[in-house]
Amino acid sequence: MDWKDIYKERLTTAEKAVGLIKSGNRVVIGLGAGEATALVDAMVKNHKAYRDVEIAQMLPLGKTEHSDPGMEPHFCYNSLFVSGKSRKTVSDGHGDYTPCYFSKIPLLWHEDLPVDVAMLQVSPPDEHGFCSLGVSVDYSKSAAEHTKLLIAQVNKHMPRTLGDSFLHVSQMDCIVEHDQPLLYLPAANIGEVEKAIGGHCASLVRDGDCLQLGIGAIPDAVLLFLKERKDLGIHTEMFSDGVVELVNAGVINNSKKNFNHGKMLASFLMGTQKLYDFVHNNPMVSMHPTDYTNDPYLAGQNDNLVSINSCVQVDLLGQVSSETVGMTQISGVGGQVDFVRAAAISKGGRSIIAMPSTAKEGSISKIVPILDEGAVVTTNRNDVQYIVTEHGVANLRNRTNRDRARMLIDIAHPKFREQLKEAFKQRFKTDY
Predict the structure, then answer these.
(1) Rounded distance, CA 160 to CA 30, Å?
(2) Cα separation of 96 and 56, whole Å?
(3) CA 386, chain centre distance (Å)
(4) Which one-letter DSSP state was computed for residue 43?
(5) Which pTM was predicted?
(6) For residue 186, what pLDDT is reported?
(7) pLDDT band at 432 (very low <50, low <70, confident <90, very high)
(8) Which residues form the catalytic set?
(9) pLDDT exceeds 90 at position 43
(10) Would you give the distance in Å from CA 247 to the centre of its chain?
(11) Torsion of CA 165, 169, 170, 171, to 10 degrees
(12) pLDDT tens across 273-322, in order?
């Protein structure tokens, strides 16, 4: 059958499509800007028809009305990366968090968390009947390939990204046409502290390096200081508008990459319309699921891979907590450990964990004698390399416990250094 006939045959409304969801189903929703908001809205509107539907998602940007008070009998939320939109849901007990490296999440859908329904957003089909997952390939491609029911929202605003990003219309059980601008990620607020951190991180980046960047003000600040670099490459789980500026300036050209030469690799994208326009049909951009982009062995095939991520706390042994404040889950492991380990594999690789030296308007130190009670160790002390604050850089790799502690105290905020020195003396039974 011609793909156009299949398309017409499976074309339906959002209301009819979500009517196929059954109580007790697990429904996977695309992450970030890839969320099929028209389908999610229709599902929420139809909530009285369901009981105990599990919503599995990572990093929502949408309204998350399925987690509003009163929705408890109908939906439960399984977060794969806790963020501002899902923290209260998880902390209130209406949702939960599944710890899993981002590189392994695509495997969940055909191993431990089989998918009943996947609701994904795609670009219009090309002349061969292939739609692109656009800004959200990540775990979405695997969910589409392993679900029992695939509902696709076809949106003309979804950019057609290249790489391993395509689904054929014959793979879709229900097709819903609904055009709307993509969700966007506002530019991060970069203050003087973030600029100082960005400058220190950038000092560790050399011409020809390949970069992995996380989300937020610090990675964006790093990019501000790379305008004088040459021949940088990108192999990351995501990127945003700042990368576009460096491509346009000729700083990022991927010419020195020895793995996927000439290509910027990512698994998802979040930013403004400027970013979405840039990636549309752009042969420099290659989108892949995270079991490819985040696989430490594969990512580590890039020489001079530099990973830049952030965290919540670091203790004097170099243990990094990036997911919790005490016992409260506020984030997730994401791809941090994937890329810390990839950088260790990479010839000439470097991994950087960057953070402000204080939190709560300077009232507490983020470099601490021991992690808060209940805090989760995300990057362990055997994997950690550079720790960066606005006060400097500490290279902890292959250093003794005492040396690590001294270097971390030196980049702590000055008003906390004496307290940390006292903790040092008590722990190591020697003077600082």
Answers:
(1) 16
(2) 10
(3) 20
(4) H
(5) 0.96
(6) 86
(7) confident
(8) 237
(9) yes
(10) 21
(11) 40
(12) 999 999 999 999 999 999 999 999 999 999 999 999 999 999 999 999 99
Percent of the chain with pLDDT over 90: 96
Gap between the Cα atoms of 109 and 115, Å rounded: 6
**Using one digit for the tens of pLDDT, what is the confidence trace for 352-389?**
999 999 999 999 999 999 999 999 999 999 999 999 99
Rounded CA gap, 298 and 346, in Å? Answer: 9
DSSP string, 137-203: -TTHHHHHHH-SEEEEEE-TTS---EES-EEEGGG-SEEEE---PPP--PPP---HHHHHHHHHHHT
pLDDT at position 216: 85
Which one-letter DSSP state was computed for residue 361? Answer: T
Contact status, residue 28 vs residue 147, Cβ threshold 8 Å? yes
Work out the burial of residue 382: count CB atoms within 10 Å of its CB; fewer than 13 is exposed, 13-18 middle, 19 or more buried.
exposed
Residue 190 region, left (φ>0) first, then alpha (ψ -120 to 50), else beta?
beta
Amino acid at the residue 300: G
For the chain, counts of helices (H) and of strands (E): 15, 27
Q: Where are the beta strands (DSSP E) in 58-138?
A: 75-79, 95-97, 117-122, 130-132
Q: What are phi and psi of 178, to 5 degrees?
A: -155, 115
* C-alpha dihedral (310, 315, 318, 322), degrees to nearest 10: -30
